[in-house]
Amino acid sequence: MITPKQNIKEVAFTAASFQLSGLALNCQSTHIILCLHGWLDNAASFIPILQSFESQPNFNHKIIAIDLPGHGASTHKSIDAHYHFIDWVYDVLSLFESNQWGSVHLVGHSMGGMIASAFSAAFPEKVKSLTLLDSAGFIYSEEHESTQVLRKGLLSRIKANKSASNHNSKQLSLDLVTKARVFVSDLDYHHAELIMARNLLFSNNQWHWRSDRKLNTVSPYRFSFNQCQQIVSDIKVPVQIIYGSKGVDFVKNGIKYFASLMPCKKIVELEGGHHVHMEKPAQTAKLINEFISLY
């Protein structure tokens, strides 16, 4: 089992009716940077950045990387509930309300960047700055595709229900699931292992999935392009985008279609893939530290 290194601590928060787990650095500070991970990742995807922040000059913020509901060590949604994008925005709001946070700096990777963007647009009083890591705008569908999106999403739920009984019955190993994640992503083995170790639980001499099977279902509803533009245009906090030169196409398209609608102060390309913040943690931490120092 991979454990956090140096001064990174396990933390847990109550939000609404569920518990959010996560990792934190510099816990004594009251100035917060909140990190939101991507789909099927977890707080461990920020471990390289957390380690790099310790060497940043004049760094005095508490960094919290949470496991979103259904991911990592956090609570699953109830058996009759599903994971809607807008509900994750509510989960973040509940985290703020339950812990009486003021305004924080938000950092979001991929889906976490979309959640952070929607949250920043709707609740600007709670956000000092927004850093997007290989994320820009939202995934959307054309309006004429709404029925097909609905059908595909609901059928994916039926499929997930039928396969749920086999989810934990297969013989698992950390090496096996790490190699599977590497196969379907641009992650190297070490970074994939960091993430997958937190998505698994070792008990009774075997590995079990901790992540919720329902995370693999397809959304039955997506914003239209016009809706995405409207939400992005309501982001008023300063924005920084850090993206990978070999990242996913929807990020580059997002920069093309959405970046001009936000108050983007900085757009930086780093050599790397979709998880460029894991590949280039020192450069990413330096960019974030310099950016938040201005706000």
Commentary on this structure:
By secondary structure, this protein is of the alpha/beta class. Helices cover 36% and strands 20% of the residues. It is built from 10 helices and 10 strands. It has helices at residues 47-53, 85-99, 111-122, 146-163, 174-183, 189-198, 225-233, 249-258, 276-279, 281-292; strands at residues 9-15, 18-25, 32-36, 62-66, 104-109, 127-133, 200-203, 206-209, 239-244, 264-270. Helix 1 crosses helix 10, helix 2 (85-99) crosses helix 3 (111-122) and helix 5 (174-183) packs across helix 6 (189-198). The longest helix has 18 residues, at 146-163. The mean pLDDT is 92.
What structural keywords apply?
295 residues, alpha/beta, single chain, two-stranded antiparallel ribbon, globular, Rossmann fold, eight-stranded mixed sheet
Task: Give a brief rundown of this model.
This protein is of the alpha/beta class and 295 residues long. It has helices at 47-53, 85-99, 111-122, 146-163, 174-183, 189-198, 225-233, 249-258, 276-279, 281-292; strands spanning 9-15, 18-25, 32-36, 62-66, 104-109, 127-133, 200-203, 206-209, 239-244, 264-270.
The CATH homologous superfamily is named: Alpha/Beta hydrolase fold, catalytic domain
DSSP summary: helix tally: 10
Count of domains: 1
Distance between the termini: 38 Å
Topology:
Blueprint: E1 9-15, E2 18-25, E3 32-36, H1 47-53, E4 62-66, H2 85-99, E5 104-109, H3 111-122, E6 127-133, H4 146-163, H5 174-183, H6 189-198, E7 200-203, E8 206-209, H7 225-233, E9 239-244, H8 249-258, E10 264-270, H9 276-279, H10 281-292
Parallel strand pairs: 3-4, 3-5, 5-6, 6-9, 9-10
Antiparallel strand pairs: 1-2, 2-4, 7-8
Helix pairs in contact: 1-10, 2-3, 5-6
